[in-house]
Amino acid sequence: MNCPYLKIRVSVIVCVSPILIKLRDRRLYRSTHKTFDEYCLDRFGYNRSRSYQLVDAAVVVDIFPTAEGQVRPMTKLEPQEQQEVWLRAVELAGGKVPTGRIVKDVVQRIMERTQVPNTYQIGEVCQILVKDNPELRGMGGCWAIVSAVNDFSCTVRMWDGEYTVGLQHLKSYEYLPEECEQIQSLSDRISRVYSDSLEETVKSLLQLLGKLNRPYLTELEEKLLSLLESEVKV
Questions:
Q1: What is the distance between the alpha carbons of residues 129 and 138, in angstroms, rounded to a whole number?
Q2: Integer Cα distance of 177 and 47 in angstroms
Q3: Phi and psi dihedrals of 104, rounded to 5?
């Protein structure tokens, strides 16, 4: 059964190529070339290993996922890695549609192989990169303070709460320790002032302060934040 909503399509080669076999076995290449290898290299650009790989494989069978659970583990991988995972999973399943468990195991091996060490430190200030993550929509450019370091992600504290963010969605500002402390202080001040009951213009101002790409407030920004603190009795 094919699932039209699943876009992964893998071609698995399962038998011999009659055309290349005929060329090789009947030596039809000898009218123009001395060897079969030379013929394949000249006519198709195939080296020796590729030529014989194609001799041993030509009938293409399309193997599609049959359930969403079979592709769910691959959603966070790049397209090239997804293809690699599916090919390997089909191989482990004996040329049949693999189970979700097989796919998950192959994905885990790929992630372990390509794992980038998490070098972030607690207290470090980072910028949120939304990229293709809809869960981070609206947070692009916001600063975030690392509060926990995980294998493939960091727990970060922003002025409106804590979030777990993948490493690919973080970029360090590379602030000095004292600058990180300034952002920490600013985050605490904004958090104490902010609430959903505030007027939209006030919330917008606080959100803009949460996107500053510098570790300090201008004189006017300081006055505005101080005024808000006094108004909400912080």
A1: 10
A2: 57
A3: -60, -40
DSSP letter at 214 equals: S
C-alpha closest to that of 198 among 161, 232, 148: 232
N- to C-terminal Cα separation, the chain? 62
What are the beta bridge partners of residue 138? none
Is the pTM of the predicted complex or chain greater than 0.70?
Answer: no
How far is it between the farthest Cα atoms of the chain?
95
C-alpha span between 228 and 21 (Å, rounded): 82
Place of tokens 């005929």: 22
> Do 73 and 104 meet the contact criterion of CB atoms below 8 Å apart?
yes
φ, ψ (nearest 5 deg) of residue 117: -55, 135
The pLDDT tens digits for 165-213 are 888 889 999 999 999 999 999 999 998 898 888 889 988 898 888 888 8
Tokens 């293409």, located at residue: 60
Asked if 20 and 51 count as a contact pair (C-beta separation under 8 A), the reply is yes
**3-state secondary structure (DSSP) of residue 147:** strand
Rounded CA separation 158/134 (Å): 18
Q: Positive or negative CA dihedral for 144, 147, 149, 152?
A: negative
Q: Distances in Å between the alpha carbon of 36 and those of 21, 41, 58, 181, 205?
A: 10, 9, 18, 71, 74
Helix 177-193 with 200-209: angle, nearest 10 deg: 170
